[in-house]
Design goal:
single chain, 703 residues, alpha+beta, nine-stranded mixed β-sheet, 22 helices, 17 strands, globular, binds adenosine-5'-diphosphate, binds magnesium ion
Length: 703
């Protein structure tokens, strides 16, 4: 049996929590910190010095040797530069560790090598990191030792956001401000802010390290670029929620332990649909902390996998033909006096505040479906959304039977007088309890599903930061709240005005509601008739960021400037081109150095066999036929291989980022697919002993 864990004892061990601050800080300092956390503003330098010293002492007691400003540049992953706590020794040679308030609050990493989309030329390399006091500092333990990590935002010298956290924090403030105006309409004078909460469900694959190391594509691209299907895939539906294998279980145990130490509430774990695919979900928390924690989860998943002789694949589509991985972004908004604005209660038809919020969300999602889709796009997710896998790239809202009925009543008559109830679930077994059903079944095919007291944005990619989806959600809903409040605050008779506005919004935006099967082809047709956008790829979604509508939205709430949006669009093209370039080069490498030579060897062996069999005076027609078939496929593979080399060179010499990205998508990717077809067919007929790379069967089942 493995060692027992005490969750209560280890939880938050490596986190500089409020309670630790309370223990270690003078009362007045602690009070100031809490005030800035709650209400914003700046710490005085004196206070910052005291906090820094306490934080450093705690860290050093726990073995920390360095600190880092931990930030989230536009690479989508995190960045850190370690500085030791060492200082100049005194005359006696003794060194006392030091960490100042200034070092805590502000950092100045060289920003020149992070993506900036033209925001900052390399000669203006200055960038600043600033402490996000609302996200607690933590200790990261790795082979480097123990590092004190301070979550920070990252901006350029001229104040433009160069990261994912800054706009997220800005969007949270905008949402809070506008949502407060909504609750004030209903007489809530107590709430002082409204918080967006997020719970991301993270899917991932595990693969044995020895096999991984033999797959250049997994190493460089994070996904397989070749590979014939295994005889068994996910068709038996025996992996989903199945018994967790011992090796995977040992991994999950260590992963949980590491996450709990960091104060990440890892809660749910299970096997997912595809073989070797799993999921971890933490308990939801404030959006910016959830975003930080999701980065920590992804990073820890990778690190712990290595300790277990495995690799963790976060790519959205590591294997063709079986399910890919996503990240369900559960999102809700709650006042600081405890009212979840997305909680309909028992009788949603009578909950006018909820209906107004719902009407605003319908308006927001319908108006900015393009932006929401964009926020969930990354290179890997192009394999899922609207491509080989559901959900489609079309944004729609699932409300469920009960709410849809309420909305329909409101649209038709202006009043919702009845509410459908869940009824009782009869098990038909005397010893089992019968129980009250939820009023609504689930819909696993909707990209944006209402699930009881939150929305589940199911489009997000598994490898992507969840900062952008939540920034976008916060922003579009803030705008809808703002427009509603602008109108309603002026009205004398609020009750009638609210009623009219709900009816108006719901009527105008009902096309965004879809409760049916989002994976069906008919839905694509139906969505087209409704005029809903269906944006097929990441780069086709990129310019939604810079439409007049988007610029107006983001500038109005100070979330992005036009220049920041333009730079982000540019980065999307660059990222896309670079990623496909790596994939193309990897395919060229594998085809040219591994697969083609192996098949050539095999044909040689077959040819020898044909000659030997013929010389023995026996019928060699079967061997000859096999040789002919292998030869044919080899010729076709060679042709695509040469073609890929050609178009790849053409692509990499292009100057304009947007044109280049589209060339990669429309031309290079096509040839990559063409090259894969004969290679995968060859894998099915070539002697397994001679096939140079591990097969899908091995990768997914030998764990
Ligand atoms: P599922 O059954 O779809 O997996 P769960 O109930 O397990 O859904 O929740 C999935 C995620 O949603 C978890 O991270 C959970 O903490 C989070 N979640 C639950 N309630 C809320 C809420 N009100 N706001 C945001 N996230 C929530
Ligand atoms: Mg879920």
């Amino acid at each position: 049996m493995s060692e027992k864990l005490n969750v209560e004892a280890i939880f938050g061990q490596n986190l500089f929590t409020l309670s630790k601050m309370k223990e270690r800080l003078p009362k007045n300092v602690y009070k100031e910190v809490v005030k800035v956390m709650d209400q914003g503003g700046e710490l005085s330098m004196d206070t910052a010095n005291v906090v820094a010293k306490a934080m450093k002492d705690w860290a050093v007691e726990h073995g920390a040797t360095h600190f880092t400003h931990w930030f989230q540049p536009l690479t989508g992953i995190t960045a850190e530069k370690h500085d030791a706590f060492v200082t100049h020794p005194d005359e006696s040679g003794k060194m006392l560790t030091e960490f100042s308030g200034k070092e805590l609050i502000k950092g100045e990493p060289d920003a020149s090598s992070f993506p900036s989309g033209g925001l900052r030329a390399t000669f203006e390399a200055r960038g600043y990191t600033a402490w996000d006091i609302t996200s607690p500092a933590f200790l990261k333990e790795s082979a480097c030792g123990t590092i004190l990590c301070i979550p920070t935002a990252f901006c350029s010298y001229t104040g433009e956001a160069l990261d994912k956290k800054t706009p997220l924090l800005r969007s949270m403030e905008a949402l809070s401000e506008q949502a407060l105006r909504i609750v004030r309409l209903f007489g809530n004078t107590e709430a002082t802010k409204v918080v967006a909460s997020v719970g991301p469900e993270q899917e991932y694959f595990l693969v044995d390290e020895n096999l991984y190391m033999k797959r250049t594509d997994l190493m460089f691209a994070g996904r397989t670029l070749f590979g014939a299907p295994a005889p068994k895939g996910q068709e038996m539906e025996d992996h989903y929620f199945g018994v967790i294998r011992e090796r995977v279980g040992a991994y999950m145990k260590d992963l949980n332990e590491e996450l709990w130490k960091l104060g990440v509430t890892a809660k749910t774990q299970h096997n997912e649909v595809a073989p070797a695919q799993h999921e971890l979900a933490p308990i939801y928390e404030t959006a910016n902390i959830a975003v930080d924690h999701n980065q920590i989860v992804m990073e820890t998943m990778k690190r712990v996998a290595i300790e277990h002789g495995m690799r963790c694949l976060l790519h959205e589509k590591p294997y063709a033909g079986v399910n890919g991985s996503g990240k369900h972004d559960n999102w809700s908004i709650t006042t600081d006096n405890g009212v979840n604005l997305l909680d309909p209660g028992e009788t949603p038809n009578e909950n006018i505040q909820f209906l107004l919020v719902l009407a605003c969300i319908m308006k927001a999602v319908d108006t900015h479906a393009d932006l929401l889709r964009q926020s969930a796009s990354d290179v890997g997710n192009d394999h899922r959304l609207g491509a080989n896998e559901a959900p489609p790239a079309i944004i729609s809202i699932f409300l469920g039977e009960q709410l849809e009925d309420v909305v329909n009543q409101l649209i038709e008559t202006g009043f919702a007088t009845t509410v459908k109830e869940g009824g009782r679930l009869l098990t038909g077994v005397k010893t089992l309890p019968d129980f009250q059903k939820d009023a609504t079944d689930r819909n696993r095919t909707s990209p944006f599903a209402f699930t009881g007291n939150k929305f589940e944005f199911r489009m997000v990619g598994s490898a992507d930061s969840i900062a952008s989806p939540n920034t976008t959600l916060n922003a579009i809903v803030a705008e809808a709240f703002c427009e509603a409040a602008d109108r309603l605050e002026k009205e004398e008779d609020k009750e009638i005005a609210i009623h009219d506005l709900i009816k108006e919004y719901m009527t105008k935006h009902q096309r965004i509601i879809f409760n049916g099967n989002g994976y069906a082809d008919e839905w694509v047709e139906e969505a087209k008739r409704r005029g809903l956008p269906n944006i097929k790829s990441m780069i086709e979604a990129a310019d939604t960021l810079t439409t007049d509508k988007a610029v107006r939205l983001f500038e109005k709430f100070g979330i992005f400037t036009k220049v920041e949006l333009e730079s982000r669009e540019e980065i999307i093209y660059e990222t896309y081109a670079k990623t496909i370039n790596i994939e193309a080069l990897t395919m060229i490498d594998m085809a040219g150095k591994q697969i083609i030579p192996a098949v050539v060897k095999y044909t040689r062996m077959l040819a020898d066999t044909v000659n030997a069999v013929k010389a023995a005076g026996v019928d060699a027609s079967m061997q000859t036929e096999l040789l002919r078939s292998v030869g044919e496929k080899l010729v076709s593979m060679q042709a695509s291989y040469m073609e890929l080399k050609k178009v790849e060179e053409q692509a990499s010499s292009m100057e304009n980022a947007k044109e280049q990205a589209f060339f990669y998508k429309d031309t290079v990717k096509k040839v990559m697919e063409e090259l894969r077809v004969p290679a995968d067919e060859l894998e099915m007929i070539v002697d397994k002993e001679m096939w140079p790379i591990p097969t899908y069967g091995e990768l997914m089942f030998e764990i």
